Amino acid sequence: RLHQAQRHQVKLRLGLSGASGFGKTYSALLLAYGITNDWSKIAIIDTENNSASLYSHLGEYNVLTLEEPYSPERYIQAIKACEAYSQEVIIIDSITHEWSGQGGCLQIHEKLGGRFQDWAKVSPRHQAFIDAILQSNCHVITTVRRKIDYSMDADMNGRTKVIKHGTKEITREGFEYELTANFELINDKHLAKASKDRTGLFMDKPEFVINAATGKKLIQWCNIGLSIDAIKKEISRCLTVEGLRHVYNKYKFFQKEIHPLILKRKSELDSVNGQLVDNNEITNSKNDDNGNDNK
What are phi and psi of 147, to 5 degrees? Predict the structure, then answer.
């Protein structure tokens, strides 16, 4: 069935990748603060040997330390724990361990025998981890390590120096396609470029340093469109079942989310209408007692 395209408010799914020492954790924290403007609403799942605590001077954000084994299920539990703590932004620093760390997917596959058919058991577990990120009710920022390469480059004065580069992301190929935007940190000066950008804010733009202003731009983009909160208010204002049916049919993209709210409001209206019937019966009963004719 065809319907008119409509922009909805979404939760951000952001990626930061780079070689070790390029500032992934620091950049992710500044990005998260720009999104929330509240350090206490930021949780970081730390698999990087307590590197998250190095930046505690920035603000009072929350840290969940995740140690090996780095199975998909343990990552999922960590995400759920952050959600239960009413966080607005979850930083997963990093997702590399879920793929190539101790107890991660590559090691799980190897222990099963390392055959091609063994991926049939591993891939669903990895996909469940990806789904936990995509379906979270929080904004999610993931960091990914990149394999390191070196080159001999000449500076402006003609002197040769060794330059460190990040190359391929160390996670399962294709994860970038799931993201709202993916930023690659290209050197130890924290310079970044967008390798994927659905927002159109950063793609094909000059390299830049990620900071809180980057997060503010993203959340402003994110908040353009239809808000689920606005739909909830519309449901609460409905006074008839027909009105509820109209709201449900109008917001087809949100039907799964608003269905329980529609049923709850219908129950409230049924209760009110039942009380009106009861009141009428009471009134009629009083009239009968007074000897009035209720024909």
Answer: -60, 140
Q: Torsion-angle region of residue 233: left (phi > 0), alpha (psi -120 to 50) or beta?
A: alpha
pLDDT digits (tens, 9 = 90+) for 98-155: 999 999 999 999 999 999 999 999 999 999 999 999 999 999 999 998 766 555 666 6
Q: What is the DSSP letter of 59?
A: -
Residues forming a β-bridge with 209 = 191
The answer to whether 170 touches 96, Cβ cutoff 8 Å, is yes
Please report the DSSP string for 266-288 in residue order: HHHHHHHHHHHHHHHHHHHHHHH
**Cis preceding linkage at 69, omega within 30:** yes
Q: What is the CA radius of gyration of the chain?
A: 26
Strands (E), 124-237: 139-154, 160-169, 181-185, 191-197, 208-209
Which of 185, 170, 192, 73 has the alpha carbon at shortest distance from 124?
73
Q: Which candidate, 91, 43, 55, 50, places its Cα nearest to that of 67?
A: 50
Please write the tens of the pLDDT for every residue from 156-194.
Answer: 666 776 555 546 666 667 788 889 999 999 888 889 999
Pull the structure tokens for residue 27.
């950049």
Tell me the C-alpha distance between 16 and 268, whole Å.
46
H/E segment holding residue 76:
helix 72-84
